[in-house]
Design goal:
Elements (H helix, E strand, L loop, with lengths): L14 H11 L4 H7 L16 H10 L5 H8 L2 H5 L22 E2 L3 H6 L16 E2 L4 E2 L11 E2 L32 H16 L2 H21 L2 H9 L6 H6 L1 H13 L3 H10 L1 H10 L7 H10 L4 H13 L6 H8 L3 H13 L1
Antiparallel strand pairs: 1-4, 2-3
This protein binds zinc ion (ZN) (2 copies).
The site of one zinc ion has 8 residues, from loops.
Length: about 350
Amino acid sequence: MPLAVYVHPLKEELLSSWVMRTCHANATSLYSLLWHFKLNNQAQVDIDQTQSPEFLRWLATTLNHPDGFTGAKAMSLLPIQEITTLFPHKSWIRGIDRRAFKWRSFRFCPQCLQEAPQPYFKRLWRVEWYEVCPKHHLAMYNGCPRCSKPIVLHRISWEKPHVAHCYNCKSDLSSFPPQTVPINTNTHAAIEGLCALISNRSQEDYAAIHFLEALLEQGRRLKGVSSPIESLKNVGINNSAEYAENFPASFLATAAYELWHLDGDSLNKFILENQGWFNLAARDYSCPNVFKHFHRVWFKAHELNEDTMNQIAKEIRDAGVEATPGRIARKIGCNIRRVEKFLTKKHQQ
Ligand SMILES: [Zn+2]
Ligand SMILES: [Zn+2]
């Protein structure tokens, strides 16, 4: 059975947004459409991350994508997943955790929704760090501003004039006021750079930036949000505390992007000054090749520092066990004798 109405995909549109607009135009729900074609088993799947090429091909044909399978795939999140192969430990895709029901919740920029001939959702809006709209320099909304429920596209009734509504309180999402973000021109450029990195599929840049992000995250974890801000300032990267606090994923990604684009000497200086963070990041994630030499430096010469030691000991105690040198060493990923030596020296002081 062919559909009554076909909908043309819009610029930078997300696959599931196009699918939902098609359902909407045909006065049907996603579930009814899938049920009609005996594809009920796909109803619980995140369309944008489908692992079934057959399903993607079916969508492209049935919904009549002008560029067929390739076009439909380019609208999905699969190309973004493909650049993560060199650093697979963390995804840039938002809400991959299905248990928390985050995986189908969307964010939006009200201005982008308003300007479109028909409101639709863009592909990069599902990227984790995308908390600021690079087109309008406005904060994205992560859920419904009125009732705080997540935005779930497939639950929006087709009786609404368009798909950008809250399924719960029925608000029109394009009607919410814009919220400005306290960031500078360098940060705007970094956001644009990150978007370009995704469209160029730069795997190595992705791995490096993601590792630097993990490193900054350790600094924040150990000493609070202002600590990476101070260290970044020393190498000429300026961010406001307000930005770092309210847009944590965006702050980490843009700062990491700026670090990665510093000259080599400044980047070395930053890492050497924050070797404790570096080592903790290398413990949690594998270290990309480009930073491997720092790893060796650390294991040979770096002194254990007190902040790292206290934080690790605290994490072990919080888990309900005694913070013995053996457990600390295992967690840091270094030799037990170094930890013992550090503790003895501290004891003697
Ligand atoms: Zn926008
Ligand atoms: Zn609502």
